[in-house]
Amino acid sequence: MKDPTTLSTERFRTIITRFYRRYGRDLPWRRTRDSYRVLVSEFMLQQTQVERVQNSYPKFLARFPDVASLANARTAEVLASWQGLGYNRRALALQRSARKVMEQYEGRIPVEPHALVSFPGIGPATAGAVAAFAGNVPAVFIETNIRRVFIHFYFPGQDAVSDQSIEPLVDRTLDRKNPREWYYALMDYGVHLKRKVPNPNRRSRHYRRQSPFENSHRQIRGLILKALISQEGLRFNRLSDIVRRPQQKVRKALDELIREGFVRSARERFFIA
What we know:
Layout: H1 9-23, H2 35-45, H3 50-63, H4 67-72, H5 75-82, H6 89-104, H7 113-116, H8 124-135, H9 144-154, H10 163-173, H11 179-196, H12 217-230, E1 234-235, H13 236-243, H14 247-259, E2 263-266, E3 269-272
């Protein structure tokens, strides 16, 4: 087999696009170029499996069909619609981004990466994805599946591969006429590699093994929010009984949620902010 590091850009593109034409995934957020719907999908897909997003995405859009409805919603409503996706701070950041769009961009979501990175919860990868998928902008960005593809083809046997080393290759191979489809193809090939070979991303300098969720601080945060969504105005002892975790850990997580703006307290009772 030919050394993959010697593949030309043309050959690399051919391998990726042939796979995509045959096995490309039909996902609901790929059927739209509406910047709001793309933005929602990208927030949901951060650190969350595609299958879970597929279930939540249409329900969320049915409840919040446009950026104005999301911006004007109560936080409790947004968090309730976010249940099952995890990492609830993303829901808060998404709503704050929607409010910024209404306040500063006259209700129109920009598709320029330099503008998008100024929004809450949006880093370079999400900004590049929204730009490419909503605006077909040839932005250069790296996410987990894209990283996996480039490490596999261009860094065989190497460890601690940095995104700084990968980025010029993403730029060089980018289909600037149709970045939208090209990035879809890269991502789908990355999913394919995860199933077929030992995960190349473990050789990334940025790889971090995810800690167990069960009995974690993150789980306690989620349980608190779930309890307050279903029954606001709980006192601490009652909340702790519902969460069924040590009171010290519940208090720590609750104080953190208050500081971050998820929860507010009034007269020794707790509410979704």
